[in-house]
């Protein structure tokens, strides 16, 4: 069962999400937070697998909270809750380490599915959204791209670069496995190594680094 912390400054939103998620046998709502600071403290206390994170909140916003949570040892994964598709706040939160995003009007079944996918390490962004995000957060010069490409060539094996390019293209683990003729378990192992070597906490950050290097 995936343990979820709901973070939103609107009590009605929290109550609605808790009610929706409470009907799933695979999800347990273990707490609620009304601002980012409370979410960080709950994450530090442990026992949380996924944080559903609103972005615009008092005391500490979702971006600062996401940054703090993803820096924790054995950090829970963060899914951004947003009203607008790929706005500036979403871009900044994903760059800070969030693992995906959900629109607040997403149907309950899709929210549960998204939680399961993120918990399993699967991407939760369509290729179109990934492209939008990359365009908004990258502005590399040719010299920067050359330096980034050299660093990636130094850090990643040829096979890891193939996997990283597929991650950057928005492919799921199963799609990467089929494309590169390897098992899903092997794909997961490669992605884990890529995250470590590129100091990335999510697939969007891998895509951004590959784009910066001119390898997408």
From TrEMBL:
One of its GO terms (biological process) is phosphorelay signal transduction system. Coiled coil: none annotated. SUPFAM superfamilies: C-terminal effector domain of the bipartite response regulators, CheY-like. Residues 3-119 form the Response regulatory domain. The keyword Transcription applies. Residues 153-214 form the HTH luxR-type domain. This is Response regulator transcription factor.
